[in-house]
């Protein structure tokens, strides 16, 4: 009997943005917009000290403060790795005195931001559904033995199904988000980077149950306002012991920005090689 479990969607229906602070907006523009080929949000003016960068149906939020670095990496789907190689080569000189680096490894490009955040860039494929450009996943490094507790936490408190996998002998917890996104928690024996306040934003279909359960445990870090709340600590559901610090901005589907249209430009457009009618990039795989 066919069960069609692949059609199931958990309570977290969308990973919408990843927020990391950066100290220099000009260098961020050079890396995220010119290098990676993403699009600065043209509709919302967030001032000179912040930048929202569109990546398909997701965003990077980049406020100006002391830099934040995720211990792990962010997955990014881009239309063409060959074109990405040319753009990253073009920005090398401007980013020479930073931590910027990039290399091709098989079917991916590993790119490091000027402040040390790592992005693994892939072309569209079956693993990412119909995503033509976007953020399919974020991976975090966690201490040995933490992955199971994290999977249990997401399942119990957020209604997000997860699984434990082995990748090259390493245990990885994977949390299913919406249609073709996930969070990954990879166990590591090395010394981990201290948590510095970076956060992710997700939308949930059932808002009250996660809020109530987290509130009962004293885990709410920011009370409900504008259809969202925040929590930071992921804990062992039995002992209550902290397992991982990672701030979540949890939004209901009543949030006014749910389903908001993100403009995406075609990064291959140039002044000299301009092609009429091709300014926009469709963020889906045809």
Mind explaining what this structure looks like?
This protein is α+β, with helices and mostly antiparallel strands and 286 residues long. Helix content is 15%, strand content 34%.
Strand order of the largest sheet: 2-3-4-1-13-16-15-14
**Low-pLDDT windows of residues:** none
Number of strands: 16
Q: Outline, from the CA principal axes?
A: globular
Q: Total helix count?
A: 4
Average pLDDT: 96
How much of the sequence lies in strands comes to: 25-35%
Largest sheet: 8 strands, mixed
State the secondary-structure class.
alpha+beta
Work out the radius of gyration.
Answer: 19 Å
Helical content, roughly? 10-25%
How far the N terminus sits from the C terminus, by CA atoms, comes to: 31 Å
Helix/strand order, N-terminal first: EHEEEEHEEEEHEEEEHEEE
Task: Record keyword descriptors for this entry.
8-stranded mixed β-sheet; globular; alpha+beta; 286 residues
Can you give me a brief rundown of this structure?
By secondary structure, the chain is of the alpha+beta class. The protein is built from four helices and 16 strands.
What is the topology?
Blueprint: E1 12-19, H1 25-35, E2 39-40, E3 52-55, E4 58-61, E5 72-77, H2 81-91, E6 101-105, E7 108-112, E8 118-122, E9 137-142, H3 146-158, E10 162-167, E11 170-177, E12 181-187, E13 199-204, H4 208-216, E14 220-225, E15 228-235, E16 242-252
Parallel strand pairs: 1-4, 5-8, 9-12, 13-16
Antiparallel strand pairs: 1-13, 2-3, 3-4, 5-9, 6-7, 7-8, 10-11, 11-12, 14-15, 15-16
Helix pairs in contact: 1-2
């Amino acid at each position: 009997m066919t069960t069609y479990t692949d059609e199931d969607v958990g309570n977290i229906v969308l990973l919408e943005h990843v927020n990391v602070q950066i100290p220099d907006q000009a260098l961020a523009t050079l890396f995220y917009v010119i290098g990676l080929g993403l699009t600065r949000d043209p509709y919302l003016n967030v001032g000179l000290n912040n930048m929202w960068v569109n990546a398909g149906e997701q965003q990077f939020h980049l406020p100006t403060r002391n830099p934040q670095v995720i211990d792990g990496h962010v997955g990014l789907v881009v239309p063409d790795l060959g074109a990405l190689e040319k753009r990253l080569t073009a920005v090398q000189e401007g980013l020479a005195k930073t931590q910027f680096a990039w290399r091709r490894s098989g079917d991916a490009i590993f790119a490091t931001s000027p402040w040390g955040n790592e992005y693994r860039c892939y072309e569209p494929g079956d693993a990412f559904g119909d995503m033509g450009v976007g953020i399919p996943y974020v991976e975090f490094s966690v201490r040995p033995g933490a992955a199971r507790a994290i999977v249990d936490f997401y399942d119990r408190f957020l209604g997000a199904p997860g699984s434990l996998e082995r990748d090259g002998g390493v245990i990885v917890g994977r949390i299913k988000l919406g249609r073709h996104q996930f969070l990954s928690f990879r166990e590591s024996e090395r010394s981990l980077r201290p948590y510095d306040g970076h956060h992710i934003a997700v939308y949930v279909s059932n808002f009250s149950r996660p809020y109530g359960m987290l509130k009962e445990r004293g885990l709410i870090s920011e009370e409900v306002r504008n259809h969202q709340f925040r929590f930071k600590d992921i804990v062992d559901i039995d002992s209550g012991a902290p397992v991982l610090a990672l701030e979540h901005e949890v939004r209901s589907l009543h949030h006014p920005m749910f389903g908001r249209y993100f403009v995406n430009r075609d990064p291959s457009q140039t002044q000299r090689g301009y092609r009429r009618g091709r300014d926009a990039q469709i963020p889906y795989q045809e």
